[in-house]
Write a structure and sequence with these properties.
The chain is mainly α. It contains eleven helices and five strands; from the N terminus they run H-H-H-H-H-H-H-E-H-E-E-H-E-E-H-H. Helix 3 runs parallel beside helix 5. The protein starts with a helix and ends with a helix.
């Protein structure tokens, strides 16, 4: 999340930089026009033109680091404003130009340029009043009040720009602090879930192991059925614990994939046996049909455990949400320069998904059937785990 905010700020700064460059270009062209029309120093024409070209080159080529580029923009802007302000006809134009500079550089959050702009503005106003104009021109209260009003307005805009910059930086710091705290809490929760999951696995394995041992003893069918239910419940709980661990690894980007040689047919055998164990006779009206393309290579390379989980979750979801009919699994491959891509299509005759459900499907730990009266088991992480595994692969 911190990275996301930095990216947003970076993008905002890019937009502000474009605005600065365009503003300077327009102001520079206006300065060129005034220089020609009012007969100012002719040497300024190539100078201003070269400043505009230099600004665009620096912006496009991304010379210097961001802060140094901002300083270059500021120097060019203030240089143009200074040249404009030293002419007698620019007495009241200086205020407008400085307000533009303060507004533009408030977008780039640079108070140094604003501070230098205030100093240059006060110097230019003093130069205009005491050097370029006669004191007699300011004897009237009207002219004096105009100058004072201009200075006050520029000072207020400069102060407002600096306040805006400080407030924005303070808000950003507050956001960063909040996000850091949230990330810390999230990491602690993830670590807690991982530790709890590891602690649960041992007693669960003991329960399922002892259930299998006891079922081998000579006991009546009723007892065997009870032990079998304990075994199934233990295996299901063990699977949910593994899902929590996988979800934590995906969420914290700590998932490490294995690369090993495996046989897809053995994975199908294991998955179908597990489905049979978990659903038993509860889904006897639902058939599972597996269509395995015979052209798939006998040996494949990948993370066998995660591929098995992807297939298991896909079939598991199909069976859970299908009351009558069946689940069709089609596994095939697509040739690629590096080898093949393994493809799995699972189609069922269940109730299906609405358009809204499809949009929400990959948003996280989403369950189609939730609440106290839910009809299906599970934590709702199956689809999000599939999404995470496949994209990681």
């Amino acid at each position: 999340m911190n990275h996301a905010i930095k990216e947003i700020e970076k993008e905002r700064h890019k937009v502000a930089a474009v605005y600065v460059v365009i503003s300077f270009t327009i102001a520079g062209l206006g300065l060129l026009a005034e220089t020609i029309l009012l007969g100012w120093e002719p040497w300024a024409i190539p100078l201003v033109a070269s400043m505009i070209c230099a600004l665009w080159i620096i912006h496009i080529k991304r010379y210097f680091i961001v802060q140094n580029r901002t300083y270059v923009y500021g120097i060019l802007f203030l240089t143009g404003a200074f040249f404009h302000g030293i002419h007698k006809t620019s007495l009241y134009d200086i205020s407008l130009i400085m307000c533009l500079i303060f507004f533009v550089f408030s977008m780039l959050e640079e108070t140094v340029i604003i501070d230098f702009g205030i100093i240059i503005y006060l110097f230019l106003m003093g130069y205009q009043v005491f050097v370029l104009h006669n004191e007699a021109e300011f004897n009237s209260m009207f002219e004096l009040s105009k100058i004072i009003l201009h200075i006050v307005v520029v000072a207020l805009i400069a102060y407002g720009a600096k306040i805006t910059i400080r407030s924005r930086k303070k808000v950003n710091q507050g956001f960063e602090k909040t996000i850091e705290d949230m990330s810390s809490v999230n990491r602690q929760m993830e670590d807690f879930m991982v530790n709890v999951s590891h602690e649960l696995r041992t007693p669960i394995n003991v329960v399922t192991g002892l259930s299998m041992v006891l079922m081998d003893h000579e006991i009546n069918d009723e007892k065997k059925n009870e032990l079998y239910e304990i075994y199934v419940a233990g295996k299901r709980l063990s699977g949910q614990v593994e899902n929590l661990l996988d979800h934590s690894e995906l969420d914290t980007d700590r998932l490490i994939l294995d690369k090993e040689v495996y046989n897809i047919t053995s994975i199908f055998n294991d998955v179908t046996q597990e489905i049979k164990v978990f659903f038993g006779n509860r889904k006897r009206n639902v058939d599972i049909v597996i269509n395995l393309d015979p052209s798939i290579p006998y040996k494949l390379v990948g993370d066998q455990r995660r591929i098995k989980k992807v297939l298991r979750h896909l079939i598991d979801n199909g069976v859970k949400f299908t009351e009558h009919g069946g689940v069709m699994v089609h596994v095939y491959h697509e040739p690629r320069p590096y080898g093949i891509n393994l493809c799995m299509d699972v189609v069922d005759t269940g109730k299906g998904l609405s358009a809204e459900d499809k949009e929400r499907l990959f948003s996280g730990a989403y369950k189609l059937d939730s609440g106290r009266a839910k009809a299906t088991a599970g934590t709702g992480m199956g689809i999000s785990l599939i999404y995470g595994f496949v994209h990681k692969m």
